[in-house]
Every structure is written in structure tokens, then in C-alpha cells.
Design brief:
With about 120 residues, the chain is an all-alpha fold. It contains 4 helices and no strands.
Length: about 120
């Protein structure tokens, strides 16, 4: 999901990023515009995602649990930490891939297309 949203953001903003490069911005500055947004969205989505995930887990354990089978609803703090590390790692790897694509933008071709 993170990689897909990063690719969509790159596709939507390739014209603006190419324009920034033509105006004299460096590759790092252009990348930080896109990756800064990706980072902010990822950090902002961590807490609501954890709350929704624990809510879904509670609902699933309540629905599946019956007289013959009991599934306990147990989420440790380590689970939240592991989930955060996995999401942040995915965001970093996705950011590196998208940054490489920002560096390879064909400025003339991107600016020729109609927005």
C-alpha cells in the first residue's frame, strides 16, 4: 500500500517535480517534497491503523469464538512495536525506490505532456 501510494504520488506530481528541476532545484530538494509527504502520511497513519487493527482483531475473535473453540484476544506492546517497524521499513524501502525514479525523470518529456 505504501509503495503504491508513493508511485501514484510520483505519477501525479511528475510535472511539478520536473518543473522544479528545470527551475534549478536539486534532485535532493525535489525528492524531499515527495518523500516528505510520504513520511508525514506514514507517521500520521500509524496510530489510527493500530487502533483499527486492534478493533478488527477484537471483532474477529468475538465472532469466531464459540462454545467449542475459544480464541483469546491478546495484543502485547511488542506487537505494536513490530508493526510500526515493519511499516516504517516498508516506507523507507518504497521511498528509496521512488527517489530513484525521481532522479531519472526525463525533464523534457515530462514537461511536453499536457497536465
Amino acid at each position: 500500500v505504501i509503495y503504491n501510494s508513493a508511485r501514484i504520488a510520483l505519477a501525479e506530481r511528475s510535472h511539478e517535480l520536473a518543473t522544479m528541476r528545470v527551475l534549478g532545484f536539486t534532485r535532493v530538494e525535489c525528492s524531499m517534497v515527495l518523500l516528505g509527504e510520504l513520511g508525514l502520511l506514514t507517521i500520521a497513519a500509524l496510530a489510527p491503523g493500530m487502533l483499527l487493527g486492534s478493533g478488527f482483531a477484537a471483532i474477529i475473535t468475538a465472532v469466531i469464538g464459540g462454545e467449542t473453540v475459544r480464541i483469546p484476544y491478546v495484543i502485547s506492546p511488542g506487537t505494536y512495536g513490530f508493526a510500526a517497524v515493519v511499516v516504517l521499513t516498508a516506507a523507507i524501502v518504497s521511498g528509496m525506490i521512488v527517489r530513484r525514479r525521481v532522479d531519472r525523470l526525463d525533464l523534457v518529456e515530462v514537461l511536453k505532456t499536457k497536465a
